[in-house]
Request: fold
Amino acid sequence: MISAELTIIPIGTSGTSLSKYVAVAVAALDETGIKYQLSGMGTLLEAETLNELFEAIKVAHEAVLKEGMDRVVTSVKIDDRRDRDRTMDDKVRSVEEKLG
Reply:
């Protein structure tokens, strides 16, 4: 299982709120069927393959551009662990168990 953290930042918006653009990106992710978890600073993604992951990132990125933006900065952090099949939930649970 491949985990990633995605942040898409439109440049040149008319205000400081970005929730409209986040909603557009998340709606695009919904259409891909990829598993995701929204957070206050980005979106966590989970995919079986790199192709599936990169396609979802591309769809979300393009959705924000189609919203009328001329510039979008997208950052991705990928955890591609191949020795074990661990989900995002497994990783959180592991830390919580260690916290007691």
Q: What stands out?
A: The two ends are 26 Å apart (CA to CA). Residues 44 and 62 are 18 Å apart (CA to CA). Residues 2-99 form a domain with the Alpha-Beta Plaits fold (CATH 3.30.70.930).
